[in-house]
Specification:
- With 397 residues, the protein is α/β, with parallel strands linked by helices.
- The protein folds into 2 domains: 27-191 and 367-396, Quinone Oxidoreductase, Chain A, domain 1; 196-333, Rossmann fold.
- Helix content is 24%, strand content 26%.
- It contains 10 helices and 16 strands.
- The chain has helices spanning 113-119, 193-206, 223-234, 246-255, 268-275, 293-299, 321-327, 341-354, 356-361, 377-386, and strands at 55-61, 66-78, 87-92, 101-110, 136-144, 156-160, 169-173, 177-179, 214-218, 238-243, 259-262, 281-286, 300-308, 330-333, 368-373, 392-396.
- The strands form 3 sheets. Strands 4, 5, 6, 7, 8, 15 and 16 form a 7-stranded mixed beta sheet that branches. The chain has a 6-stranded parallel beta sheet with strand order 11-10-9-12-13-14, with helices on both faces. The protein has a 3-stranded antiparallel beta sheet with strand order 1-2-3, with no helix packed on it.
- Helix 2 (193-206) packs across helix 8.
- It is globular and about 65 Å long.
């Protein structure tokens, strides 16, 4: 959305350590490379040609008293907390698959607001994750770890990650891996895992949206929003959206939204109640948090469910509990990145079972605003921060 936001807390990532922390690009501290010699990081220019699996970097080897050449890959590192200018292409060690993991040679990744928050130093990755950003990716399986079944070298896949997507390779537990669905190209598949898992988990698994009910989606033209509109329509719900321009609302209508609210000019509570005969929304998917809390409860229908997945409008607000009691309503707040592995595995499996057939049938498609080369990562971050996009912004290798 275009509304002012608290940059420390963004859509889909309300949980996790909130303290500001400097994010070091020193890959020698990562678990897979804990015993690697000290690395010499170098910048990679936009004119330099990418050569998958053949990048080299130099390292000091104290044991032998000389420099040696090691294989590596390109990745976008965060040199210090700050603006897009702190993003730098560097050469880092290749990942190795652990038990139950594969290595994905990345074709594309996407820019999520959590990446921006991580870049600013407010949202470090979970322990054991790569230090570089990237919460989803698509590509080809290039290595298979011990105990892996059902996946082979050469398989096309996309993945939900805890980090590391901004790199030529990433190690992924197979429980977070999804096949590229029919009708979707390998690059565009990078825009599916994060949005589909977030929407399906919150709107369907948690809030239990049913056919004929009304779903209100704030930020309807975002990556999460465009996916929520399509999934809700596919299951037979009525969809209301908020967005900040007529052009964005028109795009939401094309995807299946029927109640369109320009939040700059209209009151979404009044508009949604008018469109539903005074009933309101059965489910609200909210990325604003504190700013919208009172009005989100007001717009809820009897037995309504409010699900907060972001805090772009702040994190502290007063709530009149009597309104919830009167409506038999509930408020939920969730995040995805810091969830236990077994919970994420259940979400991914449910998406594969229920959402992937909708994608293959064309009922749900990735909405891609732009595909930019990884060398333009700074420009991609600026685009997402401007909220001028509709859908996803992808980075390609």
């Amino acid at each position: 959305m275009d509304a002012p936001r608290d940059d420390r807390y963004v859509s889909g990532y309300a949980a996790g350590p909130p303290e500001r922390r400097s994010i070091s690009p020193n890959v020698a501290t990562l678990p897979h490379h804990r015993h690697e010699p000290e690395l010499t990081r170098r910048s990679v220019t936009g004119s330099e040609r990418k050569e998958h699996c053949s990048t080299r970097f130099t390292a000091e080897d104290p044991a032998r008293g000389r420099r040696r050449t090691l294989p590596g890959m390109r990745a976008v590192v965060i040199t210090r907390p700050g603006g897009p200018e702190v993003l730098e292409l560097a050469v880092v060690p290749d990942p190795a698959p652990g038990p139950g993991e594969v290595v994905l040679t990345v074709a594309a990744t996407s820019v999520n607001r959590a990446d921006i928050m991580q870049r600013k130093g407010f949202y470090p990755p979970p322990p054991g994750s790569p230090e570089w950003p990237g919460l989803e990716a698509s590509g080809t399986v290039s290595e298979v770890g011990p105990g892996v079944t059902g996946w082979s070298v050469g398989d096309a896949a996309c993945a939900l990650l805890t980090g590391g997507g901004y790199a030529e390779k990433v190690a992924v537990p197979v429980s977070r891996l999804l096949p590229v669905p029919g009708g979707v190209g390998l690059v565009d598949a990078a825009g599916l895992p994060e949005t589909t898992c977030t929407v399906w988990n919150n709107v369907m698994m948690l809030a239990g949206l049913r056919p004929g009910e009304t779903l209100l989606v704030h930020g309807g033209s975002s990556g999460i929003g465009t996916t929520a509109v399509q999934i809700a329509r596919a299951v037979g719900a009525v969809v209301a959206v908020t967005a900040g321009s007529a052009a964005k609302l028109e795009r939401c209508a094309e995807l299946g939204a029927s109640i369109l609210v320009n939040y700059r000019e209209q009151d979404f509570v009044a508009e949604v109640k008018a469109a539903t005969g005074g009933r309101g929304a059965d489910v609200v998917l909210d990325n604003m948090g504190a700013k919208y809390l009172a009005r989100n409860v007001e717009v809820l229908a009897p037995h309504g469910r409010l699900v907060v997945i972001g805090l772009q409008g702040g994190r502290k607000a007063e709530l009149d509990l009597s309104l919830l009691l009167e409506k038999w309503a509930s408020v939920h707040a969730t995040s995805l990145r810091w969830r236990p592995a077994d919970e994420v595995a259940r979400i991914v499996a449910s998406v594969a079972e229920h959402v992937w057939p909708l994608v293959a049938d064309g009922a749900v498609r990735p909405v891609v605003h732009a595909r930019l080369p990884i060398e333009d990562v700074g420009e991609a971050h600026r685009l997402v921060e401007s909220s001028a996009h509709v859908g996803k912004v992808l980075l390609t290798f």
